[in-house]
């Protein structure tokens, strides 16, 4: 996907399969070579775009070991880490952005990033991003939203933890600052998130409530939630990608491996294609299978004037004879001609039957 195609996907109104975004986050494990491998893997999986995160530990938090600056969640693999040390490990060095973008574009991938403060937006503007992504925790940072929106680029915002009132404030801030193309992503802020907490039925409601495109930022294991989101009209699906979960890293435990990402790409597009439209009756490809239906056939040799009975008239395959719904009304009627066994019954062969009811 090109820069222009991504903008069109976010801004256009024509139905289309969801844009599949491979979120690289901190899964490069502070290796530029591994970052390149992740980009190559995303391309080989058939993803449309990669997403970066643009911050440093010092632009996102303070290096203070007090309790409020320490992750306090016993169920998290990050429990006990200071925010500064976690973000220092997970951040993508800014000097890597240009070569990573070049690698992505050379592999046919679009790219964009989540900035986390004004300096990140200023830096990303030098790289001409197609759009900006506001991460869930930053949804309440209205000045940051206005800064991104003022660039005139499409804006994507995740809604993890946000109330309707908070979403409304964020959407209004974006639009008041000049955002003309907005996409909201349903997100559950849990790592990994459980399917039962994903509530993907929110996606079409988001789109209707705010008059914009909507999609899914997915932290669940597997691809089930993403396929459900596709069926509900998701414009974008974002999933974290790692080379191997066993390699570790700050986000590896809830990221997809390449084969899983490839499955997401293939099956989400199949899911979108399967939606089709409202249709009854045989499709073009089904018409050749109509012969596989049951129909009425003569099952014993008959002479003109003989009566149709349960012994000489049956509903069988193939479907070249009269429909089985006429069976009872035909019993007891005489045939007007000799009819050999294996003949598909037709109206002209039977006395006193109006063919209009065929």
Describe the structure.
The protein has two domains: about 5-55 and about 90-275, Aldolase class I (TIM Barrel, Alpha-Beta Barrel); about 285-355, Type Iii Antifreeze Protein Isoform Hplc 12 (Alpha-Beta Complex), CATH 3.90.1210. Helix content is about 30%, strand content about 15%. It has twelve helices and ten strands. It has an eight-stranded parallel beta sheet with strand order 3-2-1-8-7-6-5-4. Helix 2 (about 30-45) packs parallel to helix 5 and helix 7 runs parallel beside helix 8. The model has no long low-confidence stretch (mean pLDDT about 95).
Number of strands: 10
Q: Structural class of the secondary elements?
A: alpha/beta
Count, helices:
12
Which fold name is given in CATH as the topology of the largest domain? Answer: TIM Barrel
Overall form: elongated
Percentage beta strand: 5-15%
CATH H-level name of the largest domain... which superfamily?
Aldolase class I
CATH architecture annotation name of the largest domain: Alpha-Beta Barrel
User: End-to-end distance, in Å?
Assistant: 53 Å
Order of helices and strands: HEHEHHHEHEHEHEHEHEHEEH
Mean pLDDT: 95
CATH class category name of the largest domain:
Alpha Beta
- Amount of helix: 25-40%
Largest sheet: 8 strands, parallel
For the record, the count of structural domains works out to 2
Spans with pLDDT under 50 lasting ≥5 residues? none
- CA-atom Rg in angstroms: 30 Å
Name the strands of the widest sheet in spatial order: 3-2-1-8-7-6-5-4
């Amino acid at each position: 996907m090109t820069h222009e195609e991504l903008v069109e996907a976010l801004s256009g109104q024509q139905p289309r399969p969801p844009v599949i975004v491979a979120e690289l986050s901190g899964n490069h494990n502070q290796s530029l070579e591994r970052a390149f491998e992740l980009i190559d893997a995303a391309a080989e999986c058939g993803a449309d775009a990669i997403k970066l995160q643009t911050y440093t530990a010092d632009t996102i938090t303070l290096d203070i070991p007090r309790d409020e600056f320490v992750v306090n969640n016993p169920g998290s693999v990050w429990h006990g880490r200071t925010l500064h040390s976690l973000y220092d490990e997970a951040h993508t060095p800014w000097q890597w952005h240009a070569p990573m973008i070049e690698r992505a574009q050379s592999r046919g991938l679009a790219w964009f990033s989540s900035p986390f403060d004004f300096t990140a937006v200023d830096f990303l503007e030098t790289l001409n991003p197609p759009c900006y992504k506001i991460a869930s925790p930053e949804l309440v940072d209205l000045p940051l939203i206005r800064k991104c929106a003022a660039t005139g680029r499409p804006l994507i915002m995740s809604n993890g933890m946000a109330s309707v009132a908070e979403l409304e404030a964020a959407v209004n801030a974006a639009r008041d600052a000049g955002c003309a193309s907005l996409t909201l992503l349903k997100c559950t802020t849990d790592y990994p998130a459980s399917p039962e907490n994903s509530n993907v039925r929110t996606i079409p409601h988001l789109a209707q409530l705010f008059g914009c495109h909507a999609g899914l930022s997915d932290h669940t294991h597997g691809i089930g939630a993403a396929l459900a989101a596709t069926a509900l009209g998701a414009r974008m699906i974002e999933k974290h990608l790692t080379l191997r979960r066993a390699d570790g890293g700050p986000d590896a435990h809830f990221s997809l491996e390449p084969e899983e990402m490839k499955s997401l790409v293939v099956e989400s597009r199949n899911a979108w294609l399967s939606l089709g439209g409202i249709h009854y009756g045989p499709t073009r490809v089904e018409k050749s299978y109509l012969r596989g239906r049951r129909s009425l056939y003569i099952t014993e040799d008959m002479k003109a004037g003989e009566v149709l009975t349960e012994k000489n008239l049956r509903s069988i395959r193939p479907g070249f004879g009269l429909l089985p719904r006429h069976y009872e009304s035909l019993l007891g009627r005489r045939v007007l001609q000799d009819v050999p066994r294996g003949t598909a019954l037709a109206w002209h062969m039977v006395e006193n039957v109006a063919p209009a009811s065929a």
